[in-house]
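Two proteins were folded this term; both appear here.
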Amino acid sequence: MLNSPPPMTCGYARGPDAPEWVNHEFLAWVCRENEWHASCSCSYTGNAFFLKFPTPCSRKDSHEILDPHDRRAADRRPGHHGQRADAEKVADSNKITVSYREASVPFSYLIGSTKAVGFSVELTEAIIDDVRKKVKKPNLEVAYMPVTSQNRIPLLVNGTYDLECGSTTNNSARGKDVAFSINMFYTGTRLLTKKTSGVKNYADLAKKTVASTTGTTNAQVIRKYNTEKNLDMQLILGKDHDDSLLLVESDRAMAFAMDDILLFGLMANSKNPAALQVVGDSLQVEPYACMLRKDDPEFKKLVDGTITRLMKSGEFTKLYAKWFESPMPPKGTNLGLPMSQQLKDNLKAMSDKPAT
């Protein structure tokens, strides 16, 4: 056991002699086991991993760090002897914690200060109903917590909450840390800009400032495109989609690169929708899916079962029509977006295949 990691350590490094089972998931479990801050990071020094905290950690006593070569720790790591499945944990505590997004229109967004609504919110509620039946807890307590693009994965991995249905891309890189449900939407990166900007496609943004949101695949996509095309864009990141939109509205960015469906939703609920437009080719079409912790096949089976039931019964199609082809709160805006062919195909395939 080691105490007090040096303050300069940061990031994630396995170390050459670290056992195979010492991975991101194990380190998240270490944070949770010791009641440390949710977003700790780590580095490898000698024969132990050190963890660094971006804010003061919640535990008042010394911050012990488990030696990764201690097999007792191995036996208690996630997915092994000491880790309970979500359904079992929910049953024992009579509580499930689910997340929501504050500005992912029309998937999960706030109307008023605390009430989240949207397509993904209703999927979440359907899953919660099935959890109640599974654990035989009709009065199951449900806690709702907001997450951002940046913290949604670490907070899920470390056990702060149990399920995220929002606007999260299912891809292979994220699949190393979390599990995904059956895909429930498909979208690609495009651009939101003012109609007066003169921007019609990515080439028009050469040497211009472009916004995206921290922790999203879109920021990675636009960086890669910028490098490949040698456009010399300047990328700035908002902490959530509302912040990124504001960068365009306040003329601090020429355009906002994001999933096209989110751009349409944000534009519809913006202060002046008539002044904005979505333009550009669609880059890298990717699926959205609900997100849950890895190595819990029973909980994934339950979540997939809910989505399968909704898809087979036609309820999923009705839910889609409600949020993408009908007036939505708070302004009664209709996105008028028919279901894509990829999503129609997945109503039959019911695949959880990630983007590469």
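Next, the second protein.
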Amino acid sequence: MRGPIVIAGGGPAGALLATYLGRAGHSVTVYESRPDLRVSEVDAGRSINLALATRGIVPLIDIGVIDRVDEITIPMRGRMVHAVDDPNPVLQPYGSKTHEVIHSVGRTGLNAILLDAAEATGNVELVFGRSIDRVDLETSTIHFADGGSTEFGVILGADGVRIAGTGRHDRRRIVRLDDRPARPRLRGTHPAGRTDRRTPTRPQRPAHLAARRIHAHRPREPGW
């Protein structure tokens, strides 16, 4: 991959990608418009907790942070539905087996763990408080909101739709993780050299966490 490699956005997706690339030996610079959430208060807006299922858990195991993430997650076995005309709530499980659960995790806590993992590779530079205004793909130049600029070899967009100046034609030359329906396959990053793997068995959760559910209130409908 041609360098310098730039990742726009230091959220969970950008930090995870930076970790994989850094572990593969690439020098990466991540630009994040917000301050470093590990050392300052960052407004999370209306963001709710993330729900981790198999697709999100596998890379966390792969990069060796699952134990830290486990400490801040709560398992959810299903949603408890309360019908208006029925006093007895009904549990709708998320899976067909008792061990099939999803795990609720705070976005800020997860993001901090992934930023630590990216820095731990020794190949990732995290630049906070630097907002990208637009990207000139003809000259391979990033223009920042503060008037500065820098060149890049490859830019990877992990900031949603916030990069300005990337029209339909230009988007063909930017890799955007947010547009992909499935997790990208990064070859050569697994310690054993494999590019596919089976999902490891999750350890059993403490009993006091196993009963957690999401509670939803809605009216009962015919045939529902």
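The mean pLDDT is 78. The first strand starts at residue 5 and ends at 8. These notes refer to the second protein only.
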